[in-house]
Design goal:
single chain; about 180 residues; mainly alpha; about 30% helix; about 0% strand
Length: about 180
């Protein structure tokens, strides 16, 4: 599939996510797993997850210029994002990705399976702008944190190899027909 994925630990997840239309390579033969996820890529993934949940497919997004415009339009019209971003090519922080991802699926697809008290995550307060999204994803088992304390690191970035990892913490989301929501731990 992608020459730069080979037999890496995330290869199976990248392949599944690619087959479901959730992610793309950076070219026909490369995935660029060490590059960070951009806002545009996060919106594409969330738009496709939303479409899978509601229609059973990743959607028929018509090619456009720039490539991400159909996904942005879909995300705006479906409430995944509330307003346009000034630059879609910048890296998405983990906080930005969590907010986008949490809005891709309805609450009944992200029901709580973990008991995480408000303000229990060491570096995320429920009152932070991204706090409710992060807590929703932790409680649903989509995110678990980056260490034994559950630290989130909201201002750090997401390597693309993590976006293919759709089952690191085990919680499949019914919306994605057996795939779990993108993990960010």
């Amino acid at each position: 599939m992608f020459a730069d994925v080979g037999d890496e630990w995330f290869a199976e997840y990248v392949q599944k996510a690619y087959e479901f239309g959730l992610i793309d390579g950076t070219s026909a033969t490369t995935y660029s797993p060490k590059e960070n996820l951009t806002i545009a890529q996060a919106i594409k993934l969330a738009s496709c997850l939303h479409s899978i949940y509601y229609t059973g497919t990743a959607g028929s997004f018509s090619p456009d210029t720039p490539w991400y415009q159909p996904y942005v339009d879909y995300a705006l019209s479906s409430g995944i994002i509330s307003s346009p971003y000034p630059d879609y090519n910048v890296n998405a922080t983990r906080a930005e990705f969590a907010v986008i991802l949490a809005k891709a699926l309805p609450d009944d697809a992200l029901t709580a399976i973990n008991t995480i008290s408000n303000n229990q995550i060491p570096d995320v307060l429920i009152s932070d702008p991204y706090g409710p999204a992060v807590y929703k994803l932790y409680r649903a088992g989509v995110l678990t944190g980056s260490d034994s304390d559950g630290t989130f690191y909201p201002d750090s970035y997401n390597p693309r190899r993590r976006r293919g990892d759709y089952r690191p913490h085990g919680r499949p989301v019914p919306a994605a027909k057996g795939l779990a929501a993108a993990a960010g731990a």
